[in-house]
Known about the structure:
The structure holds two protein chains of two kinds.
Chain A: H1 7-25, E1 30-39, H2 46-56, E2 67-73, E3 75-79, E4 85-88, E5 104-108, E6 112-120
Parallel strand pairs in A: 1-2
Antiparallel strand pairs in A: 1-6, 3-4, 3-5
Helix pairs in contact in A: 1-2
Chain B: E1 15-23, H1 26-42, E2 45-51, H2 57-68, E3 74-80, H3 85-92, E4 97-101, H4 110-123, E5 131-135, E6 152-158, H5 165-168, H6 170-174, E7 178-182, H7 194-204, E8 209-212, H8 221-234
Helix pairs in contact in B: 1-4, 2-8
Amino acid sequence: MRRKKVHEVSVALGMVDELRKIAEKNSAKKILNVKLKIGRMSGIVTDSLKFAFDAVKLEHPFIASAEIVIEEVPLVYTCNECNRSFDTDNMYFPSCPDCDSYNLRLVSGEEQHIENVEIEV
Amino acid sequence: MCDVCGCSHDEVHETKVVDVNQSLLRANDEIALGNRKHFDEKGILAINLISSPGSGKTTLLEKTIEALQKDISIGVLEGDIETELDAERIREKGAPAVQLTTGGACHLDSALIHKGFHALEKQMNGKNPHILFIENVGNLVCPSFFNLGEHCRVVLISVPEGHDKPVKYPKAIKTSQLLIITKSDLLPYFDFDCEKIKRDALALNPSLTILVTSATTGKGMEDWVGFLKQEVRKRH
């Protein structure tokens, strides 16, 4: 059941492979919790990813009872003109709330990674 | 009885937290890196074309092959959910093509490209093309997540689709190096604001190059072909 449907399913299947490697490396009997960091602008729909993971985990005993916990990372920019850092919901044309500049650098919001896993040894 | 797993032993279940801190797409990225290395060693320019279905990827390729095939060899990997139709269109133009059917998946990944490229090498009797075009599955969302090892990602938006596509599909714009607006011969018939789409796309990705083309009239094709020739020259 590789490579099916929306990208969240592919991401969930990739996650299963990575979790297997992590379990082997750490001699884990099973994986209990998986903490993910998903940025607001990563393009991953967190509900879809959870749904996909819950569907695929049942085929793999070592993760069958695993829960994923998702930390959504806000979109944060720092202004290159005045150095102000700020959160925003504006994914398209954010500007600095102090000096109105569009010259910004992204600090966070594109994350899509596994932060840590809780394993049973 | 143990209440963690329901086993009948009173064994102690020891748990611990392991820091991982790695990308969810690591497996894909590693294979993509291998693909890229292979392309670089052989001097191949790899281009990943992404767009909605029907925006003119295959037509652009047909015209590109016509314009370049005297001087530059082209190989094509065609991604689709089903059918060989697009690969057949490319072969009719005289270029080797391998059809990758994903059987339901809405995007290509780096493992499919790896497999497909070896099939293409076989079809070319071990020779390498100057340019490898990867025509992704028609979809403006998922393909933008998967690095295939390409040097250049090109996103196509056709005039009938509307000028609002960059703001609706920002990831496709942000991860591409070139935006080609296709079917520009239809501009008189559609409410399509060329200046707005350029402004929006550049706000999302200031280093994006934008070309306005028409495969029917040939408009903009010179710029596209010129860009390809220049990129091939850098590698030879």
